[in-house]
Amino acid sequence: MEQITALVQIKGIRDGLLATFIDAPWEDQSVALLAQIDERQAFFQGARLAMDVGPQVLKVNDLVELRDRLSERNVSLWAVISESPTTEQTSQLLGLATRISKPRPEEHKQSADAISDESALFVNKTLRSGTRIEYPGNIVVVGDVNPGAEIIADGNVIVWGRVRGVIHAGAKGDRSAYICALDLSANQLRIADEVSASLKPQKDPRPEIASINGEGRLQAELWHTG
Question: Hey, how many other C-beta atoms are within 10 angstroms of the C-beta on 209?
Fold first, then answer.
C-alpha cells in the first residue's frame, strides 16, 4: 500500500488541497489518491481538491468516475491542471477549473513569517475531538481546535480561532518554531521538547504567540495581528 500511495503527493494551497501525481497509469494514480484519502478520512472530510495530472490524457468517464468516488468520501474536486489539451478540455466540459490562483507577493507576506504555499497545510474548518493532523511543515487553521483535537507540525502552527486542544510545533526539534492563536486556551502546548501546563480559558481572550524564550522556557505573549 505504501508503494501505491507514494504515487501522489498532497499539499495545502490557498484554495484547499493540491494532489500532484508521479508518472504512472491513471488507474494506479487514482487508486493511490483514494487510498491516501481513506487512510486519513477525518482530515479530508469536506476538503476542496485540485489535481495536477501533468501530461495524463483523461476522458470524461475518467474524471466523472473519480469525481463521484471523491464525492462519496465528502471530498469536492474543483480543479484539474494538465499539460494535455484533451484533459483540459474535458475538465472544462465538466465545469472544473483548469487554473489555480497564486497569492500576490503582498498577500504572501502578510500571511505569516516563513509561511508559504510550498510549506504550509491550510485547514479551513474547526477540528473536533478525535481529529489528529500531522504535517512536515507549517499548519494554518481557520477555525477552532476543540478539546480532544491534536495538531503536530514540524514547523509553526497558526490558528485563526480558539485553541483548546493539543498543539505541538517544531515536532522534529525546531526550537525556533512558534504557535499563534486568537484565543490560546490550550489543553497543552509543546514546542520541540518544551511542554506547557494546561492554559486556563481567558475571560477576555486576546491573540497570543507562544515560543521558547531566551531562557529556554515556553512562554506566551501578545500576538500583534494587525
Answer: 18
